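For practice. Any example?
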Amino acid sequence: MIYNPRMALKFNLICNDGNARRGSVETAHGAFQTPAFMAVGTAATVKALTMDMVAETGTEVILGNTYHLMLRPGADLVAEMGGLHKFSGWRGPILTDSGGFQIKSLAGWSCSAQDAPVAKTEGGLVKMTEEGVHFTSHIDGGVRHFMSPEISVQIQHKLDSNITMVLDECLPYPVTHEVAEKNIALVTRWARRSFDAFVDRDGYGIFGIVQGSVFKDLRTQSARDLVEIGFDGYAIGSLTQGEPYDVMLDIIQHTTDALPHDRPRYLMGAGTPLDILGAVERGIDMFDCVMPTRAGRTAQAFTRHGTMNMRNARFRDDAAPLDAECGCPACKLSRAYIHHLVKSDEILGAMLLTQHNLWFYQDLMRDIRNAIEQGRFQKFKKDFIEKYTKK
């Protein structure tokens, strides 16, 4: 067992198979096994599912979002209700994103616009300064808000999330080296402030976020600066932003090489099964993405033979299950029935497909963990990709 003496979030690295890692993270609300896929519960709900349905998929840890929850229903209300666990009914660990990405994407944050004048964007009025970011809500557009590193951490404390993320700025792709360099200087200062604002509690921790776009020298510098601060874990930000796949994998490998082996590593927003396999191969332990749940609401099913659009007329009289190797409730039914639900706009169709997709992702993570334990990850990866991509 690897203990962090300062923060008491425990990471147990069980074994390696090459750079692929098998471990677990212990929190105040239980442990989760790694590599782990976190179901995205942005607004204290995994869309279309109850928390019991989420747990049935094998999900052990979920993600909430500071930006959305501070706006609605408000962090103080969640705290009055006993925190996100009691408020939502989720009993396991929760990681909360700091809100930086959502401010950028929903409120129109302009990258590295430090000390820029207030500018009207499609999403509203935004101004980023050394102190933090001023923005208007995407919900009502008329109310001004302010988020600083300290405020983000304080909100996450009120939410009672087990893993707090530092406030940072997610860069788009591509950006210049100069922009990325200014970005890491700012977010490193913000990371220090987030770290200093974090309150130590047994079973809780805070992660830093490595930035630097696709520039290896900046990724090295960012990782070095964050490791010097001493976080419980480290995320890799500003990837899966449209950069070439091989570039993404190269940057992941370069960054994990610069991170300590005794802390969990989290690739933010990586979503496809192939993304996950490539990142696990390069030492990543944690993942999140809206892809499986969003796909479920738009009639797409993930299977071991690839994805299927259940609106397609070819499934109208197909008696086979979505995936014969899946044990979820949807796979006890026929493709024809799922197709009927989707075409009829029945809510049950979205519920079944969402749960199925999460089930598929958690089956994938379980199989990855087993393969690492048995020293056969490379073979598993090869076999899975061959089956998944075969038309």
User: Anything to note?
Assistant: The first helix runs from residue 51 to 56.
